[in-house]
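Data follows
____________
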Amino acid sequence: MDRVFEWLFKYPPVVFERGEFSFAAFSSASARAALVAATLSGAYLIVRRARQLLPRRMKIVLLGLRLSALALLIFCVLQPVVIVPSIIPHTATVAIVVDDSLSMTIPDVNGRSRAEAVHALLASEGTFWRALTAKFAVRVFTLSGGELTDRATVPRTDLATGLERVLASLHGESLAAIILLSDGAHNARRDLSALLPTFAARRVPIYAVGVGQRQVERDVELVRVNVPRRVLKGSSVKADLLLRCGRGLERRVTVRVIEGERTLQVKPIECAREMGSLAVALEFTPPEAGVHRYVFVIDPQPRELIPENNRLEAIVEVRDEVARVLYIEGEPRWEYGKLRAAVADDEQLNLVSVVRTARGKFYRQGVESGEELVQGFPERPEELFRFKGLILGSVEAGFFTREQLEWMEAFVARRGGGLLMLGGRRSFSAGGYALTPLAEVLPVEVRHERSEDPRESEQEVAAYAPMLTADGREHPITRLKADPAANERAWRALPRVTVPEVFTRAKPGAIVLLEGAKALRTGVRPVLLALHRYGRGIGLAFTPSDSWRWQMEMGSSDLSHETFWKQMLRYMVSFAEDPVTVRTDADAYEVGDEAPLRVEVRDELFRSVPNAAVEVEVTTPHGATERVRVEPSLESGGEYIGALLVREPGVYRLRARAQRADRELGEAEAQLIVREPDREYRGAGQNVELLKWLARETGGEYHPISEAEALVPELEYSAGAHSIRVTKELWDMPIIFLLLVGFLSLEWALRRRLGEI
């Protein structure tokens, strides 16, 4: 478009944008008087000639054409000019900075790689290079500081360091501008915004030339994989994958889960016809305890441009430990016995239960000693905090002291435990929990008194068939079968359950997994199972009082009841951490990255310990050990932070040890994966917004590489210490000649049609 403009108006648009318009013929009074006389005379003759007998509308058209032609002639006689600042040739330097990172090897520029397109643009015989060197002293740099080639090899893009290096190397020279040739894939830790004031202070604009497609079309990318970092032995692992599907490839892709030499799962996926993201869930069960390294792979497509982004790795630690869950029941009932029976054969769960048989009398099962839970509940908070989960059955709030209720709230909020309340005649509102600390922990609104709202108090239909919600179809608690369709059928086959207290909604932010299939008269379905995060832990509400029907009224081969409760208890204890934890911000890093480390130290009541002595030992993939220094965090008490520079691919093992004075507070272990650099191939479309922002903040402009030649006049016609004011004549612009010929030709054609010629 700029070329067409320049052909019509003789000069590029920037001349008119930055120039001052004037008329050279107005330099003397005599010239102005003669011009005015000639204009009035010409207009008089034209108007007088228009008195012939013609329709009024035609007279106006012919008069307008004549006056327009006269105006153009007068415009030319006035000698129009534009005065614009122009760089004095070869008095200023332009620095060209070329991105030489790996993403520049992507072949998405008309069949060429981005690096090849840049190399062609900078060829000495090219018009861009000739036009630029005709006006400026040109210096060429790379972002990495290496030699310029048509092959890119640097594993990451660091725009901040590269631009800063160029600015420092040209210190003292008359630098007019920097031209950045890049796809904008800045993925280093340095903050670009801190560097830009330096460019503004030196009045050095950055002109960004964007290379590559904004969205790479012929590509399928595995964007993200989320897996739990730790699970109990025997638990299934749910992996949530996010794929980005491009255009121009086959719609069906295949996802694989690999561990070592074994392929654990193969799943075909249908991509949408249009470009976009697609969420995929995979589920598998690790066969044994230990650290498992999983590789998630999308099979490459025949014409795919970036097969390097089809692979991600994740680590899952499978713990062979026993999680203790405390179950308090206020009365003997079927739910108690069947729940215990459901998890009895799970070696990773220890259900410690107390059922009140009479006032002050308790039946205990699963206790470690005869003294444990003699009073029906832990006598000290640290005894409660040794458990990872807590179930409250049909037991009223008055059974506990106010202090014990506060312990339970802290058990979830600080310790990260899971608290589940079951439906019963002494649960929820009927149990008097509305004014207790547990009211906030539960995911449903517990009322002080029964509501008069018919939606909340409808009790004539007390039995409901369980039905999965949209969230329930994907949640590990409610996955009775691996196949989604089979899972739906399994839930529909289960018997109805009784709901003593109907809840028609959960709290904001809570997730409802199960609803009653038979709606109330208002059309609202009652909540059967809901959960939400509370502090570090999780609060759950299971409103039915007789899930035992799912075992007693089904065939002996149906294990839905057992599966549900095992998954429920395993999930509710999964948020409980040890007093000392060590973690990194991500599961996987690239060679050369600096991985932030965080060690959290808490005491037996899971209160922060700000003055601990913390040691972190790291074992590299090749077996070498090193220590990483951690310092107390200024933002969070009890947290100690450090950083680990990872230099080789493989699995790094971290071990943290904390003590205070002579007292050992605990140890923790974690793992992280380090892979060969591939960050350049992820989200590899041109970052147009970043490049535009860079240019805008420094006073430059952005252009795609196809319009790079438009940069030369923008640089040429810029004001500065090395520019002068240049006058450019406008009377001979082709647009004037074309308009003049057009007006006269149209008038002639109209007169000929009217028979005047």
Notes: The chain has five domains: 2-86+726-754, 89-214+685-710, 220-318, 323-572, 583-679. The two ends are 40 Å apart (CA to CA). The longest helix spans residues 56-77. The chain is about 25% helix and 30% strand.
